[in-house]
């Protein structure tokens, strides 16, 4: 069974930084495309960024230049470095994997940007 577990959320002031982690078990990062989504209160879940099995990345316009997605194949983990955080980045952040054996979601981690 493939499991996806996020960590690293918390409370941060506007302009601050956080690094989210997503650990994968039961599959290996390098054969999956890994996605970061977020869902703010009262809003639909939106795709934030993804990194393919080959390492290509893509971002939603609202986070370009501020967020960076990366992965460590040796640790079987993917990361979302979030800089210059804004109150509108407040949301539950979810990690998702899609690979040869199917798709899985994590349980999410809360990010709150507030002074």
What keyword list fits this structure?
single chain; 115 residues; mainly beta; seven-stranded mixed sheet; four-stranded antiparallel sheet
A few lines on this structure:
The chain is 0% helix and 54% strand. The protein is mainly β and 115 residues long.
Structure commentary:
The protein is mainly beta and 115 residues long. It is 0% helix and 54% strand. The chain is built from no helices and eleven strands. The strands form two sheets. Strands 2, 4, 5, 6, 9, 10 and 11 form a seven-stranded mixed β-sheet that branches. A hairpin with a 2-residue loop joins strand 9 (91-99) and strand 10. The N and C termini lie far apart (40 Å).
Radius of gyration: 13 Å
Task: Note the gap between the termini.
Answer: 40 Å
| Average pLDDT over all residues | 96
Helix content: under 10%
Elements, N to C (H/E): EEEEEEEEEEE
Question: What is the topology?
Answer:
Layout: E1 3-7, E2 10-12, E3 18-25, E4 33-39, E5 46-51, E6 57-59, E7 67-72, E8 77-82, E9 91-99, E10 102-105, E11 109-113
Parallel strand pairs: 2-11
Antiparallel strand pairs: 1-3, 3-8, 4-5, 4-9, 5-6, 7-8, 9-10, 9-11
